[in-house]
Amino acid sequence: MQESIILNELSFKAILSSGAGGQHVNKTASKVEVTFNLLNSEGLSETEKQRLQEKLASKITQEGNIVLQCGTSRSQHRNKTTVIKRLLDLLKKNIIVPKKRKKTKPTKSAIEKRLKQKKNTALKKANRKPPKID
Q1: Which residue, 6, 18, 117, 126, has most beta carbons within 10 Å?
Q2: Rounded to whole angstroms, how far apart are CA atoms 121 and 115?
């Protein structure tokens, strides 16, 4: 994944935002929408593209775009940096191939310790019961 190439491939659109800001909200387009075309990206290898398509299937449009919006701040610039960071984090997080889990066996001492602990608790509970009268 080459971030510099990906950053050049992004397209931005400013939208009127809702929320706090009073009259300011009605006048300025502070919400930012970023569109990233995953299929035509040169910043990603083919294997990375396939992995992202599988993992982010619900977030990708029919044209192969990933669209994110950010309108948390009143500043368009701050929203732009936030949405870029969110997109890059999303891509990085979903490109990573998780390590295969290796099955392990508990050690002999761990098994013995567990059985000894079980015996002690069983004895403790047995001693709480009233004695049987025949």
Answers
A1: 6
A2: 10
Written as six digits, the tokens of 2 are 């080459």
CATH of domain 3-95: 3.30.160.20
Calpha distance 110→120 (Å, rounded): 15
User: Rounded to 5 degrees, what are φ and ψ at 110?
Assistant: -70, -40
Q: Is the Cα torsion angle 115, 118, 124, 125 positive or negative in sign? A: negative
Q: Render pLDDT for 90-128 as a digit per residue (tens, 0 to 9).
A: 999 999 888 999 999 999 999 999 999 999 999 999 999
What's the CA gap between 94 and 9, in Å, rounded? Answer: 19
| Sign (positive or negative) of CA dihedral 113, 119, 125, 128 | negative
Sequence spans of domains, the chain: 3-95
Q: Token pair 């009143």 is at which residue?
A: 74
**3-class secondary structure for 46-103?**
HHHHHHHHHHCCCCECCCCEEEEEECCCCCHHHHHHHHHHHHHHHHHHHHCCCCCCCC
